[in-house]
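Input record (one chain):
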Amino acid sequence: MFVLDILFPVRCLGCGYLGVYICPCCEKKLHTVNTQACIYCKKSSLYGLTHPICKRRGGVDGHITLFYYDNTLKKIIKGIKYSLTTDAWADMLHIITKQGRYELLFYKNIARLRAQPIPLSEGKEKKRGFNQAKIITNTLSLLLQIKTTSLLKRKQDSPPQAQIKRENRFKNIKGAFYIDKGKKAHDNILIVDDVVTSGATVKEAARVLKRAGAKKVYVFSIAKG
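The corresponding structure, as predicted from the sequence alone:
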């Protein structure tokens, strides 16, 4: 292990500082979301609950996020994804636990809630070696003392949403998810993802889950764009 530390030293994914994946300086640079907003109209909303006037059939019922997806956080999250290591998530999860403790209490009070990570395709998860949404979900499960579910599956690889123009993202993700025939979704689902930008991915996931019987579908993300 000592030899590996010399050959491949741990560096901050934000600035290159030696010893940690997210240094205290870069942690302080993270831009906290102080006011949650409706995922549809983007206007202020308590706990990010979807406004009654914005509600739609098969839609998301609320979205809580912790940070804005600024340049520092982009470097950190992309670094974690493409360094192909789960070790870097330890620092990120520590920040999530510390920063989101108050906001996450909302989810703890929802009865019969199950946490569902946004799935990767089987091929992509094997190639990467992990699914970051699953890692976040496992941490939330322990924090909130709720069970997880893996009902939602991904049909195939589609071009990454980040590479698609914003106006084309809903079309790109349409039909990407499914639930095995005959299986029913739990009453309340918490979709978990690392970043929500246009919201196309989580909205499509919510549509599929509600079609399978979910009554309420909420979303948690580390960041929003």
